[in-house]
Amino acid sequence: MELLNLLKKENFTRISFHDEYNVVQFSNLLELTSNDQLISFMEITPVRLEYYPFEIKPHIICYDELRSKKFFLFR
Questions:
Q1: Range of the domain at 15
Q2: pLDDT digits (tens, 9 = 90+) for 28-74
Q3: In a designed cystine with 73, which of 31, 38, 52, 58 is the match (CB 3.0 to 4.6 A)?
Q4: What is the DSSP string of 2-52?
Q5: How far apart are CA 24 and CA 20, in angstroms?
Q6: How many domains does the chain have?
Q7: Confidence label for 1 from pLDDT (cuts 50, 70 and 90)
Q8: Mean of the pLDDT values across residues 11-39?
């Protein structure tokens, strides 16, 4: 799955999520060079994704076997 390329192709430049302490974590997608770097930042290895690019706040939801995380996308 080449999530980073998809997000860059859709002109998203930043991604964020709330960590376990409810602190917002940001990453600049333009500085990332590989999908592995993105997965490392996300702190989840997704087995399934839901992509919502046309919402007021575009986001993706990533699922692994035990949990899910929501990531907000910015252009």
A1: 3-74
A2: 999 999 999 999 999 999 999 999 999 999 999 999 999 999 999 99
A3: 58
A4: -HHHHHHHTT--EEEEE-TTS-EEEEEGGG--SHHHHHHHHT---SEEEEE
A5: 10
A6: 1
A7: low
A8: 94
